[in-house]
Amino acid sequence: MIEAISERVSGYLYRQNEQKDVSREVMKFALIGILTNGLIILLTLLIGIFDGKFQETCLSLASIVAIRFLAGGHHLSPPILCVAISTGAITLVPFIPESQTLTNLFTAFSLVLIWIYAPADLEKNTRISKPMLRWMKYSAFVLAASNLILQSHIIATAFFIASLTLISIKGVNRHE
Questions:
Q1: Residue pair 114/71 in contact by the 8 Å Cβ criterion
Q2: Is the pLDDT of residue 21 over 50?
Q3: What is the mean pLDDT of the chain?
Q4: If we measure between CA atoms, which residue out of 57, 56, 64, 164 comes closest to residue 114?
Q5: The whole model's pTM is what?
Q6: Residue 155 bridge partners (DSSP)
Q7: Contact between residue 111 and residue 162 where contact means Cβ atoms under 8 Å apart
Q8: Per the UniProt record, which residue ranges are transmembrane (predicted)?
Q9: Residue 171 — left, alpha, or beta (φ > 0 → left; ψ -120 to 50 → alpha)?
Q10: DSSP tag of 18
Q11: Largest separation between any pair of C-alpha atoms in the chain
Q12: DSSP 95-147
């Protein structure tokens, strides 16, 4: 669905672009990212409103976005699967019972995963320099470590979920 819409829109945009300075494939790739992320955000916020956990859902979403931005992470393919799993994970975080033990475990595991695997899927797929990627990794680590002070079970769980995406597993799209 997302690929088909991106294919049609990128085809239209490519035909309308007289300069042809961007390839149709690049446009399609960008549109897939925009549509996937847009759907995840829209669905997550709507579900948060309807399930009565809007603020908690927003905190979960912001936490995952922050770690993914700084540490990277692998993507599921096809994009609609990414939308479904991401939306489900983000909206379920507020319903996980609060536990000091789980908060500390999730924070500790997030720190380990970030230290070992970050930056994931960024070096080959962005133009970010190696020194900047290193700073982004350290920033993700410090951000995750901040939850040792905050002690938020929602942040801990969201960081843990985002950190799991740093691990390369079968069925993950590596943009190759």
A1: yes
A2: yes
A3: 91
A4: 164
A5: 0.87
A6: none
A7: no
A8: 29-48, 102-120, 141-169
A9: left
A10: S
A11: 59
A12: GSPP-HHHHHHHHHHHHHHHHHHPSBS-TTTS---HHHHHHHHHHHHHHHHTH
Residue 75: phi and psi, rounded to 5, are: -110, 145
Give the pairing of strands 172-173 and 75-76: antiparallel
Domain spans of the chain, in order of start:
2-173
List all residues 6 or more positions away from 103 whose beta carbon is below 8 Å from its beta carbon: 147, 151, 152, 153, 156
φ, ψ for residue 63 (rounded to 5)?
Answer: -65, -45
3-state secondary structure of 75: strand
- Which two tokens mark 99? 């536990």
Residue 170 — pLDDT band, cuts 50, 70, 90?
A: low
CB of 99 closer than 8 Å to CB of 53: no
| Token pair in block for residue 101 | 């033990």
Contact present, 23 and 11 (Cβ < 8 Å): no
Predicted local distance difference test score (pLDDT) of residue 176? 37
**What secondary structure does DSSP assign to 150-161, as a single string?**
H--HHHHHHHHH
